[in-house]
Amino acid sequence: SSELTQDPTVSVALGQTVKITCQGDSLRSYYASWYQQRPGQAPVLVIYDKNSRPSGIPDRFSGANSGNTASLTITGAQAEDEADYYCFSRDTSGNHWVFGGGTKLTVL
Amino acid sequence: QVELQESGPGLVKPSGTLSLTCAVSGGSISLNNWWTWVRQSPGKGLEWIGDISHTGNTNYNPSLRSRVTMSVDTSKNHFSLNLYSVTAADTAVYFCTRRTYGDDWYFDLWGPGTLVTVSS
Question: B9-14: long-range contacts (C-beta < 8 A, 24 or more apart)?
Fold first, then answer.
């Protein structure tokens, strides 16, 4: 089991808003980063430092932190957003690193 | 534009050693980043294996620490992974990545990944 917990599956209607969450004790002290992974491809960074986007990532992607939960919100989900999403941060000890178990996003 | 590329055998025998190298091109490995290996077993999630700095400092996943070593060669601008005593459970796509710092650490660059199968 991962020290960062994500819902395994989430679905959203095309054009609607969806929030993907990541829970863990370490998130009270550290930021999570978020990665999108399409089948057969390497992960791609979509959010870092709580709510910063790399160049080329659409502004419909945003991040937030509250207590022990980090969230990734997609406002106006598109068909190409269908993918697996992973959060990443420190483990509970703060000395090592861990990914969340991943969330499979389906765009209906 | 910095790019990463994994290389190494795609097939390793059980109880053998998995050895991979990640070539860094378009930039120097000797910057204030950490260079990381991540793996993904078929149909599973991402797993952090460990990191190495350009000075050779390492940090390994506790669950793999007894079987992992990493090294860096700044003259060749690459870093490497050795995983010993492999079993079928080590079959995975192995990614090399760059961990960089803003307000916190994150992976801003990934190699395409290489599939390593453990089988006799």
Answer: B9/B116, B10/B114, B10/B115, B10/B116, B10/B117, B11/B116, B11/B117, B11/B118, B11/B119, B12/B86, B12/B90, B12/B116, B12/B117, B12/B118, B13/B118, B13/B119, B13/B120, B14/B86, B14/B87, B14/B88, B14/B118, B14/B119, B14/B120
CA atoms within 13 A on the CB side of A43: 32
Tell me which residues of chain B have a C-beta less than 8 Å from any C-beta of chain A. 38, 45-48, 51, 59, 61-62, 95, 102-108, 110-113
3-state secondary structure B61-119: CCCCHHHEEEEEECCCCEEEEEECCCCHHHCEEEEEEEEEECCCEEEEEECCCEEEEEC
| pLDDT the model gives residue A55 | 95
Q: pLDDT (tens digit, 9 = 90+) per residue, B85-106?
A: 999 999 999 999 999 998 899 9
**Tens-place pLDDT, residues B4-22:** 999 999 999 999 999 999 9
Per-residue pLDDT of chain A (108 residues; tens, 9 = 90+): 569 999 999 999 999 999 999 999 999 999 999 999 999 999 999 999 979 999 999 999 999 999 999 999 999 999 999 999 999 999 988 899 999 999 999 999
Residue A97 Cα, gap to closest chain B Cα (Å): 7
Q: Number of C-alpha atoms within 13 angstroms, CB side, residue B42?
A: 7
Identity of the residue in B46, B103, B108 whose CB atom sits nearest the CB atom of A86: B46
